[in-house]
């Protein structure tokens, strides 16, 4: 474990602890808060870790700088939730040269997989496909106008969800009027939806938001335009955090595809295995569900995040 400056930022430089630098994307959404809490709980002193946490405010350069700082501090392992897919080759090589294993969580990178030890996350393409199949099944037989709120540009979550969704609605009567990024934030979702409503007004029949938070932001814009979300505009989102499930239970959202943020225990387990020299797979996918209004009403009281 670590001595020197990093010991002051973490759990006191106890030599028995495994020092882990975790480069989180930022704090853009309810999903992200739940993911951060899950990793902090699993990478705790109680479990044998000294955690150095950094959240990069959704800025790729800041996230790469955090990883470089972990390398300079000589941590035992680095965990990254990569903001974007591209741009990781150099810093991952630097970590490899320094003999520090990298464990990716949540999103993926385009860099060669020999530059990191393993990845644990979700099947974003399948999430987009499940959302698209719901749209296709419910509205695909009649000409229907749809708008899309995309996640952070260049993130695997946004890219793969877009691909899966497009595949699922291909060949149906769904007409995509517009698709723009709301950066996975409530504010972004609200602003972009305001723009869509100004441009297309009541032509919009369905909204697909790449996450709950953007969908929740869009609710404000839809209500301000005098329309009823869930009725005048049908809404499908991804994540299934508590606020999203509440909107679904209330009938303001119509369908949610789950994206499980509780990856901490698996990350902690993989860090220990990799450092012990045990062989691990290159990818671990956590399964997701999908929910209707009835499901949301039933599940809300026990929803953990
Ligand atoms: O990478 C997962 C996505 O990132 C979640 O769907 C979104 O809410 C988060 O910000």
TrEMBL record:
<feature type="domain" description="Periplasmic binding protein">
    <location>
        <begin position="21"/>
        <end position="278"/>
    </location>
</feature>
<dbReference type="InterPro" id="IPR025997">
    <property type="entry name" value="SBP_2_dom"/>
</dbReference>
<keyword id="KW-0732">Signal</keyword>
<protein>
    <submittedName>
        <fullName>ABC transporter substrate-binding protein</fullName>
    </submittedName>
</protein>
<dbReference type="InterPro" id="IPR028082">
    <property type="entry name" value="Peripla_BP_I"/>
</dbReference>
<dbReference type="Pfam" id="PF13407">
    <property type="entry name" value="Peripla_BP_4"/>
</dbReference>
<comment type="similarity">
    <text>Belongs to the bacterial solute-binding protein 2 family.</text>
</comment>
């Amino acid at each position: 474990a670590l001595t020197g400056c990093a010991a002051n930022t973490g759990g006191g430089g106890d030599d028995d602890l495994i020092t882990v630098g975790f480069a989180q994307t930022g704090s853009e959404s309810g999903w992200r808060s739940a993911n951060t809490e899950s990793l902090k709980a699993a990478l705790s002193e109680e479990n044998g870790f000294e955690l150095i946490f950094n959240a990069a405010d959704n800025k790729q350069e800041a996230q790469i700088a955090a990883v470089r700082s972990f390398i300079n501090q000589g941590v035992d392992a680095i965990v990254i939730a990569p903001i974007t897919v591209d741009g990781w080759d150099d810093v991952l090589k630097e970590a490899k040269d320094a003999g520090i294993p990298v464990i990716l969580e949540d999103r993926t990178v385009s860099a060669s997989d020999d530059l990191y030890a393993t990845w644990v996350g979700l099947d974003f393409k399948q999430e987009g496909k499940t959302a698209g199949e719901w749209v296709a099944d419910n509205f695909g037989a009649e000409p229907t106008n749809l708008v899309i709120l995309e996640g952070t540009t260049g993130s695997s979550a946004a890219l793969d969800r877009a691909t899966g969704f497009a595949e699922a609605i291909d060949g149906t009567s769904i007409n995509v009027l517009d698709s723009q990024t709301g950066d996975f934030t409530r504010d972004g979702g609200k602003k972009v939806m305001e723009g869509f409503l100004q441009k297309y007004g009541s032509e919009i029949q369905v909204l697909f938001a790449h996450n709950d938070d953007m969908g929740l932001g869009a609710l404000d814009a839809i209500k301000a335009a005098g329309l009823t979300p869930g009725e005048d505009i049908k809404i499908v989102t991804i994540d299934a955090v508590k606020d999203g499930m509440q909107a679904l239970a209330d009938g303001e959202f119509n369908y949610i595809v789950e994206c499980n943020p509780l990856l901490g225990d698996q990350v902690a387990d993989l860090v220990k295995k990799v450092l012990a020299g045990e062989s691990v797979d290159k990818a671990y996918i956590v399964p997701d569900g999908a929910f209707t209004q009835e499901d949301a009403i039933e599940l809300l009281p026990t929803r953990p995040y």
